[in-house]
Every structure is written in structure tokens, then in C-alpha cells.
Amino acid sequence: MTNTTFSNLNIVCLAGGVGGAKLADGLTQIVPPERLTIIVNTGDDFSHWGLTICPDLDTVLYTLAGVANPETGWGRAGESWRVLDEVAQLGGPDWFRLGDLDLGLHLTRRHWLHEGKSLTAVTRHLRQQFNVQCELLPMSDQPAPTLIETADEMLSFQTWFVRERWQPAVKKVHLPDDVRATPQVMPKLETADIVLIAPSNPFVSIDPILNVYPIREMVTDLPQAVIAVSPIVGGRAVKGPAAKLMQEMGLPVTAQAVADYYGDLLDGFVYDQQDPPGSVTAEGLQTLRLDTIMPTATERRRVAEQVLGFGQTVASSQ
Amino acid sequence: MTNTTFSNLNIVCLAGGVGGAKLADGLTQIVPPERLTIIVNTGDDFSHWGLTICPDLDTVLYTLAGVANPETGWGRAGESWRVLDEVAQLGGPDWFRLGDLDLGLHLTRRHWLHEGKSLTAVTRHLRQQFNVQCELLPMSDQPAPTLIETADEMLSFQTWFVRERWQPAVKKVHLPDDVRATPQVMPKLETADIVLIAPSNPFVSIDPILNVYPIREMVTDLPQAVIAVSPIVGGRAVKGPAAKLMQEMGLPVTAQAVADYYGDLLDGFVYDQQDPPGSVTAEGLQTLRLDTIMPTATERRRVAEQVLGFGQTVASSQ
Q1: Which residue of B has its CA nearest to A114?
Q2: A89: closest chain B residue by CA
Q3: How far apart are the CA of A178 and the nearest CA of chain B, in angstroms?
Q4: Measured between alpha carbons, how far is B191 from B193 in angstroms, rounded to an integer?
Q5: B93/A86 Cβ within 8 A
Q6: Contact A89 B129 (CB under 8 A)
Q7: Distance (Å) from the C-alpha of residue B17 to the closest C-alpha of chain A?
Q8: More confident site: B222 or A181
Q9: pLDDT of A199-217, one tens digit each?
Q10: What pLDDT is stored for residue B157 in this prediction?
């Protein structure tokens, strides 16, 4: 730990996949692991080949473990595809690309879940095996499938996202209303000094977390500073379908619209330097404009430092 | 088909794993595929990593497809172990060695079973993908787990066989008594001219098949010739725990004891030339002594020809 500025703050970060993993990667470089908790969306989780696949948890895990594929941001570096090629050869479903190393994790997780362990316990075991020190928590141990309603049909999230390459226009995102947070998530939120909302998709990565009872209520009511980082930069999504979803929802594709969408939840908002100074404003909302693009470890650390520094300012002014 | 001697006979072969696969491999070389049915033990099937593993079905399938590992007799030629190594790395269970190619099949099968297809339907699809022409049938579509009772505990078959390397002495083999044959198995037995019992383990490979209602009754009552090939050669098992099991059951480890064990079920019995001429006799039982060791395709064909020729003689004398 070369910087101890943040060593007395409890930090919770709500994260989806790639964008969440990048900010989390920066945070691990400056926050002591016992002070840092990443709460990850599991609304994307689904069953495939009889296995429980947790795309966002695994993206964050692989990134923090330093084994993520540096080109895609998800999946494993040095991955191979022997099993998938055989499944395709046999006429099985091959639209969801599970690599051999990735499968090793899915099979191990399936085994432990089948033995009765919770997803939280399995995730802890896996992160320890990967030597990831900070807490990594699924938002819930219950299944919490996000469903995507298109003009024609209701699709599971991964079917829409991967199989259909997020092309069918989204009429509505459906989130389950009966999912509860775990006994591990709640005390982390209760004792958080700063809650960060990663630059993940607000509608299909962050909303599913906030929708787990009582996470939204706790984030709203508790006195901690809540800071979101915009996933919309210069009128475009850094990655994925956020911009397309906003258009389909009739929203302008702007950082301002993201801030408005989160609304009263936020105390602070971070937007990118590609957007004009002063382009995001709301009553009672403090803002920070900086370079939020963070492909490398060094830039992730820089962004994490700037965001947490801003978070401290926001917290101390409350 | 270079030999048409057997082209008018319906042949059914009851088979376990490696020994059954070898005889089946010989039969496919001389019997037209529409006349040949291999009924395979599924008592060894078990759930591992959440997948349905069918060791005997897969050994027969891989052998007939020409993709079996020539050294072990089971598993795939050119197999790799990337997934298993990762499972081991993560602290998951790695005692059952599933290779990458093998896993491709297990995951595909799991997917189709999960969709509601029967094991019979899945097996047909898989054999067609592997271009295996003859009928390959699981003995039942119901789970039919063979349990091994040792002095200390009751073990699933694969736990005893693989994890414990068949070392704990067997007190009793337990077979379920409520398993029924499929609508695919029954007409094949009804129309069989010759039923072969492969040189598989009588207690844990063949008994589980015979125990599926009403397979034993049909094999006993119907007028077809029933011919067994001894898995005990020169006082030893060609492979696996048959000899050890016989000792633990208080039986002499001889081909004669195998013939006695099958008893009235048999019309003919084939034993190896390593045993003395005339060393197997029983009232009403015709016997044939030959070289039953068949590592190569050529020898499998020779054994199949000799056994079927003997079967024809037995059938015509009934």
C-alpha cells in the first residue's frame, strides 16, 4: 500500500462487469483490502450446460486476480476452447463461449453450490484461491434474473446480451421484486463511508443491485457519501448497450441523463473530460470532471484516487 | 461388409465398459448395423460436477467411433486436461479424471437431458454425431445406480471403483429393483436371434442390465441363443475387479464359476484358450474354447466371427 490517504475509510463499490471491474481494480491499489467491498450484480447469472454462470462476478474476480483477458476485459487470459469446440462438433449449444479455464471455475462452483454452499461462500472461496484480498460479494444468494422484454418476447439477460448481441430493442427491463440482500452485504453498507457506483450500465448492472431489498433503501437513507461514475462519455457508452438502452427509453445519451436517472440517490457525480465543463448539474449534487478512461492498471489507480478524493470532499461537506 | 454370413441374424450384445466395447467393436465389423444392438450398463452412471457421467455408454461409443484412447481403452484419444487442472487448482474435486473432449460430450448430454430428452434419445443423437451406425441403447432411461457395500459404508459405484480404486472389499453389490427397460430395448430383445453377454464384469456390469425389468425374464424365456464370453482368463480378470470380487464372494476365480453364476440363462459359453480344454462344463451348456484376447480391430473381428459362428451352431441345435 503506497498511499494511506484512504486507509481509514470503508469503501463499498457497486459493480457490474467490465466497467465495474476496472474501477475495482483501481480501488484495490489504494484501499486496504479489509476496508474494501465490491458488491456485484448477479442479475446476469444464468444456467447454461447445467452450470451456474455468473458473468459479472467472474469478470471482477478475473480482473482483480490479474488473470482476465486484457483484450476483451472479460474471460481468461491464455484461454483455450477445446471443450466448446467439441460441444459444437456434437451439435450442442455453442452461442455462449465458455473457455476451458473458465469452465474449470464454473464446474467447481457448480459442485460447491450443489453441495449446499451459498454463492457468497463459494465466491469467497474462489477469490481466496485467486489470492484476491478484498471482499467480493454477490448482491444476493437468491437467483435474481434480469429479464429483457423486447417487442416480440421476454428474454433472459444473457440470451438478449450474448446470443442476440443486444440488438433487439428493449421495451422494458424486468427485475425481480422479491430478492433480499445477504447478511454479508448489509453490514458492509451500514459501515460504509463512501459508496461508489461504478461506471457500469445503470439499467442492467446497477439497478439490479439497488433493487435487492433493502440495498436501495440503505444507500438512500444512510449518511455515507454516494458517488457515481458516468458510463456515458462524450455521448457514447464506453462499452456495451447503455447508450442504445437510453435511446430506446427516450432518454438523451448524456452523462447528465445518467445523473438524473440516479437522482436523489447521489451526493456526487463523476463525468468525463470529453464532456464540457459544467455539463452535469443538479441541485445538491457535487460533480467532478476528469479522464475516466482507464485501460491500464496505472490509469485505474489514478481514477480511483481522484474519485475517492472527491468522495472524501463530498463526505466531509455533508 | 466383407462377410455376409451373419447378415440375416439379429444380434443383441449386453455390454459393460472396456470388455463390452471390444466385442461390440468386433461385431460392428461383421454384422450389418441395422441387425446389431448394443445394450449398455448404466448402473455406473453418476453425477459429478453437476454432469451426468455414463462411463460404460461412453466407452462403447468412443470405441465404436474409433476415438477411444488406445492405451487405456476408455476416454478419448488425444485428450487434454485443461479444465481438470483448473478445477484442481481451485480446490475442486479432481479424483474423477474428466478430459476436455470428454467434457464436451458430458456438457452436451447434460444440456439435452435438461431439455427433457431421454438418455436413449441423447445417446442416439450422440452416436449419430460420431457416425456410429448400429443401435446403442442404455439399459434404461431411469437412474439405476449400482451401490457397493463395503465393511464400513455404502459407496456409489464410481466412488468405489475410481476414487477408492476398487480396493475396499465388497460385502454386497446392491442393484435397484424398480428399474424398467425402455420401449427401445424390449423389441430388440424380442426379435434377437442371438443374445451375447460380453466379457464384462458379471456382477457390476452384466447383472445391472439383467436386473432391469424384464430383461432377465426375456433373456431367460425367449427362444434365442444366449452366449456369454468369459471375462476370467487363466484365473485372472482381463481387466478390472472381477477376480477380486469373486474371491470376496467366496467363488473360485475360474471361467467355470462365471458359467455357473449365469447358470440357466446360458445356452453357450465361450472361454479362453489359456484355460484347459474341457475346463468348463455344465448340463445342457455348449462351450467353445478360443483366444478371447482382442486388443486390435483384427482380433476383435476374429473373436466376433468365432463367437457368432458358435452362436449360430447353438441356435440351430435348439
Answers
A1: B50
A2: B129
A3: 26
A4: 7
A5: no
A6: yes
A7: 22
A8: A181
A9: 999 999 999 999 999 999 9
A10: 93
Question: Which value does ipTM take for this structure?
Answer: 0.86
Of the given ranges (A27-36, B107-116, B130-139), which has the lowest mean pLDDT?
Answer: B107-116
Q: How far is B104 from chain A (nearest CA, A)?
A: 5
Of B91, B107, B125, the CB nearest to A83: B107
Quote helix, strand, coil % in chain A, to nearest 5.
40, 20, 40
The per-residue pLDDT for A180 is 97
A-chain residue closest to B81, CA distance: A100
Task: Give pLDDT, residue A73.
Answer: 79
Rounded to whole angstroms, the Cα distance separating A159 from A165 reads: 8
HEC profile for chain B? CCCCCCCCCCEEEEECCHHHHHHHHHHHCCCCHHHEEEEECCCCCEEECCEEECHHHHHHHHHHHCCECCCCCCCECCCCCHHHHHHHHCCCCCCCCCCHHHHHHHHHHHHHHHCCCCHHHHHHHHHHHCCCCCEEEECCCCCCCCEEEECCCEEEHHHHHHHCCCCCCEEEEECCCCCECCCCHHHHHHCCCEEEECCCCHHHHHHHHHCCECHHHHHHHCCCEEEEECCEECCEECCCCHHHHHHHCCCCCCHHHHHHHHHHHCCEEEEECCCCCCCCCCCCCEEEEECCCCCCHHHHHHHHHHHHHHHHHHHHCC
Residue A175 has pLDDT above 80, yes or no: yes
Provide, as residue numbers in chain B, all residues whose Cβ is less than 8 Å from the Cβ of A61. Answer: none
pLDDT at A3 exceeding the cut of 60: no
For residues A104 and A126, give the distance between their C-alpha atoms in angstroms, rounded to a whole number. 11
Per-residue confidence at A1, pLDDT binned at 50, 70, 90? Answer: very low
Q: How far is B131 from chain A (nearest CA, A)?
A: 11
* A120: closest CA of chain B, how far (Å): 16
Cβ within 8 Å, pair B111-A84: no
Q: What is the pLDDT of residue B2?
A: 47
- Cβ contacts below 8 Å, chain A against chain B, sum to 97
Order of all β-strands in the sheet with A268-272: A135-138, A36-40, A11-15, A194-197, A225-229, A268-272, A286-290
Q: Is B104 within 8 Å of A90 when comparing Cβ atoms? A: yes
Q: Is the pLDDT of residue B72 over 60?
A: yes
Q: Using an 8 Å Cβ cutoff, are A11 and A193 in contact?
A: yes
Strand pairing report for B51-53 and B170-174: unpaired
Name the phi and psi angles at A274, rounded to 5: -70, -20
- Spatial distance between the Cα atoms of A240 and A206, rounded to a whole number of angstroms: 14
Tell me which of B58, B84, B108, B114 to substitute to probe the interface with A (most A C-beta atoms closer than 10 Å): B108
pLDDT tens figures, A213-239: 999 999 999 888 999 999 999 999 998
Length of chain A: 318
Candidate from B82, B108, B114 with C-beta closest to A101: B82
**B132-183: pLDDT as tens digits:** 999 999 999 999 999 999 999 999 999 999 889 999 999 999 999 999 999 9
Structural domains of chain B in order of their starting residue, each with its CATH number: 11-65+132-316 (3.40.50.10680)
pLDDT value at position B73? 79
> Chain B residues with CB-CB distance to A under 8 A?
49-51, 80, 82-87, 89-93, 100-101, 103-105, 107-108, 110-112, 114, 125-126, 129
pLDDT at A289: 98
Write down the pLDDT at residue B51. Answer: 87
